[in-house]
DNA sequence: CGATTCGATCGAATCGATTCGACTAAACTA
DNA sequence: TAGTTTAGTCGAATCGATTCGATCGAATCG
């Protein structure tokens, strides 16, 4: 039983045993074309006897030109990317949509770690969804078009022929900011998502803002600046609660202290609230906080005022676009809209200081 | 430019243009075998002119017998599976380990949704890592052995020839339970991970415990029962904070109320603590809580007493086992050990009631 | 100077299935 | 009954690259 040189049976072997030609056996297996019941049963029986487990996917995909695999490119390592519930929800959406054509997801990391997206070049992909992927986007796209592999980008500009699943980041953030202004806030701080692939943390300078490579962060920043042009900002190194905590401490220990903080994600917002609590500030009386995403942050006791984005729907839209591209259609870009959720973390600023 | 029938160039086309045979062109591309610098450059130049993007992965994998793809089977939908940080850490470990052979991860869901693991049968896999996968395990394994695809199972018994990455669930839980007993606890409640694929919630009966299909939950339960044979239990429907909250409420409103709760995961433990807070109980004075996993639960203010398991290492071990199997070796099963972390959520029970 | 080796290249077989067109025999129409 | 359809089967080409063994010219060696 432990001979290492066991060769698996091929369809031809099965056909030979069933007493028919390989072509007929193929027909019997795939269900395409007319095959008599008798023959089909003979083929199936032969297959069972030989322990034939069905056609080899490699050969099949060569011939068919399809592999049934859709790539998902994230530019982080797995553990980082999936700490963000938004990414998980989007992935889930993609997974759901492409499940309908029985495709599976290949996880590709194009990130800092590997200098070359090896797998993008060598994986048998039918199509690809790019999650943001700021930096490597251009190179990845040109690689894919050269290979003739259709792609969809979620939040990121990829040029004319690549459909994009976008979000109204700027408008949505502006709505949140206007909400704060209407409440009477004037000194507002902003916690910004990473602006560059190096994920450097620190104060937001005009220089950094200008050289940003990450569309999402830039757009949301613009939305906040539309209403509060002079708001101070701190750039976080990721969308994590801890980062929000650090950024929150920094913003809240400045003088004069802001009366409200716009965080570019709910996780950051939760961290900001934690920072406020640390400093003995009450939310929303002493500090109003607005988030973004609308994910439920485990362990946050507040009903966060935030912009709820349809993450799962975005993923599904991306998946559906893929399905349509594989069917030969040319889906167009879609922009999703966030909805403002007024929670319990925003209130008018305290009059007395 | 918009003709739909553009056929991509093949290696033969490139060879023809470079004035050599396909075999030589192949050699030039893959780096195998001796090729003169002049020829190599001609081939590369021709490739560039024709916009040839490198060998077709499908053809290559057919010939080579390898696809560079490792499957990861989870029996949930993506959004569920990745809510648990342990799974993410393990996935990250796998990803890291197999990255060394330039393989990528194919996400396969074998779960309740699809009645048949279509992709397991039809994906061009070199090897597979099964994450738990209680129910479908047997069928998946037999399918894979039939196909001749090596597999590794993380926490789940898969038979003799399949290496397993295990954890000392029972012993570790017992250590946590003994810690509680040493502190003087006698009335202990247990929050149990799902015991069956249907993820039914509810009180733990002997019947349910006996018919459990999930090794992890059963083993941890046994460890707790080793010390507290009569402890009451509640089965959660997943490893989430919310589930811990529900289970915690149930256990803590029983009479007599337990003085300590053993939760089978940190997320569940965090929920239990939340439930205690709701009821005005102080942790650890009124209630001791022990978790499992050692993940940092965002938003939990307590330093949780827990059993820290090396999730990422488990994943990496699985990945390394895969790498070795692909190299023709026969790695053996590995059992990892959890370490007890005494945090601030356990204390002696209050004497006065 | 003839024999041997070595490096570079090529031809042809191969990986395992799918698919198109051709062929046979049975069933149907006029 | 001759002519036409149709269901069932088969042969052969094809998908695109890899690889083994053979070949050929040039360089090395005795």
TrEMBL record, chains A, B:
Q: Name one GO molecular function term.
A: DNA binding
**What domain of life does the UniProt record list for this protein's source?**
Bacteria
- Where in the numbering of this chain does the HTH lacI-type domain appear? 9-64
Please give the PROSITE patterns that the UniProt record associates with this protein. Answer: HTH_LACI_2
Ordered alphabetically, the record's keywords are: DNA-binding, Transcription, Transcription regulation
Q: Name one Pfam family in it.
A: LacI
> Which SUPFAM superfamilies is this protein grouped with?
lambda repressor-like DNA-binding domains, Periplasmic binding protein-like I
Question: What CDD domains does its record include?
Answer: HTH_LacI, PBP1_LacI-like
Q: What is this protein called?
A: LacI family DNA-binding transcriptional regulator
């Amino acid at each position: 039983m432990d001979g290492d040189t066991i060769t698996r049976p091929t369809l031809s072997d099965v056909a030979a045993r069933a007493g028919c030609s390989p072509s007929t056996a193929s027909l019997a297996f795939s269900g395409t074309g007319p095959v008599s019941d008798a023959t089909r049963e003979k083929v199936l029986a032969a297959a069972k006897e030989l322990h034939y487990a069905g056609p080899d996917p490699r050969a099949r995909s060569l011939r068919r030109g399809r592999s049934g695999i859709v790539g998902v490119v994230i530019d982080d390592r797995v553990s980082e990317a999936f700490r963000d519930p938004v990414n998980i929800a989007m992935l889930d959406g993609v997974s759901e949509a492409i499940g309908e054509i029985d495709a599976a997801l290949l996880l590709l990391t194009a990130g800092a770690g590997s200098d070359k997206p090896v797998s993008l070049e060598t994986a048998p992909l039918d199509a690809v969804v790019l999650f943001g992927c700021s930096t490597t986007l251009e190179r990845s796209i040109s690689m894919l078009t050269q290979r003739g592999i259709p792609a969809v980008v979620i939040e990121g500009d990829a040029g004319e022929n690549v459909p994009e699943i976008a979000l109204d980041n700027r408008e949505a953030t502006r709505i949140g900011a206007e909400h704060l202004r209407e409440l009477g806030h004037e000194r507002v701080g902003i916690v910004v998502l990473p602006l560059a692939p190096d994920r450097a943390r620190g104060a937001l300078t005009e220089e950094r803002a200008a050289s940003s490579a990450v569309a999402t962060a830039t757009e949301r920043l613009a939305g906040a600046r539309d209403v509060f042009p002079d708001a101070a900002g701190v750039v976080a190194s990721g969308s994590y609660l801890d980062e929000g905590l650090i950024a929150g401490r920094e913003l809240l220990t400045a003088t004069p202290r802001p009366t409200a903080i716009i965080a570019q994600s709910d996780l950051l917002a939760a961290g900001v609230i934690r920072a406020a609590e640390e400093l003995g500030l009450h939310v929303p009386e002493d500090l109003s906080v607005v988030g973004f995403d609308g994910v439920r942050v485990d362990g946050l006791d507040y009903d966060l005022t935030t912009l709820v984005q349809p993450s799962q729907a975005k993923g599904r839209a991306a998946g559906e676009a893929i399905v349509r591209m594989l069917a030969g259609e040319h889906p167009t870009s879609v922009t999703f809209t966030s909805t403002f959720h007024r929670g319990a973390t925003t209130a008018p600023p305290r009059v007395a200081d």
